[in-house]
């Protein structure tokens, strides 16, 4: 089944048991020094069942219980504060002390201060704290990434069957590319690689390898809304955004609307925008174009995902997905936020 991921998309897959059987968990939370929060909700990105997905916060405390398919990340939101980097759930009782971190006058996140319970839940928090420390202490991005990759390599080597190992690797591929991902992935156990999590991780790595910054892509041709074949190659001599989307994908439709607000910037910088829809029916595609008020060039092969050559060329495994290429068809940026920032600096 096709899947669609927004920014929190980044927080995918993971845990230590490879069995597909449901596992019981209990999360006991307490919020430090804040009395104004009254309700908490829990969200995961895996198959989970909760006794109650929304609970009352009483005397700063709350409890979630339920089942998870395997250890995974859970994001805890409240009625007044958004969830931060989350908690690692395992088949255990986990006690978490939260605090509200101020990121600005109107931006606060609920973060974990301490964790009691399974080793893996503690390992997740320790890893997050280590990344934050490296980001603060090391101004050189290359050195900083070296420390982070070394930490992931060490953890995967020690715990090759851990879903947390796969999760750490997945997030770093998303954050900084595929430089060391393949060699670290190869250290995962065969059992982990055979899970759905392991298979999705491999697709992410293949995508990052195929579309690495500095890679020259091959030209391609796709039909436009009138069925006319349009070729995308270096003869255009312009910087171009390739924006992959689909009508069923909610975050894709949001990104379409956001792109309308960037049209003035793209025109000023001489950057072309091409939407590449992965819809399988023309009527659905055209209705979405009309509803989203899309005025830029739109292309579509109108084929199922498993038969679509453009998906195979770019190793697309989730959408929305966007890349920025220069006049020589060389990839300069990936991900719409990064792309817009890159264009602003042109």
UniProtKB/TrEMBL annotation:
Residues making up the signal peptide according to the UniProt record: 1-22
GO cellular component: cell envelope
InterPro entries linked: AhpC/TSA, DUF4369, Thioredoxin-like_sf, Thioredoxin_CS, Thioredoxin_domain, Thioredoxin_ResA/DsbE_sf
Gene Ontology MF annotations: antioxidant activity; oxidoreductase activity
Record-level GO BP terms: cytochrome complex assembly
Limits of the Thioredoxin domain: 211-346
PROSITE patterns: THIOREDOXIN_1 (PS00194), THIOREDOXIN_2 (PS51352)
Gene3D superfamilies recorded: Glutaredoxin
Keywords linked to the UniProt accession: Cytochrome c-type biogenesis, Disulfide bond, Redox-active center, Signal
Top-rank taxon, per record: Bacteria
Major location (coarse): other
Pfam families according to UniProt: AhpC-TSA, DUF4369
Location in the cell: Cell envelope
Protein name: Alkyl hydroperoxide reductase/ Thiol specific antioxidant/ Mal allergen
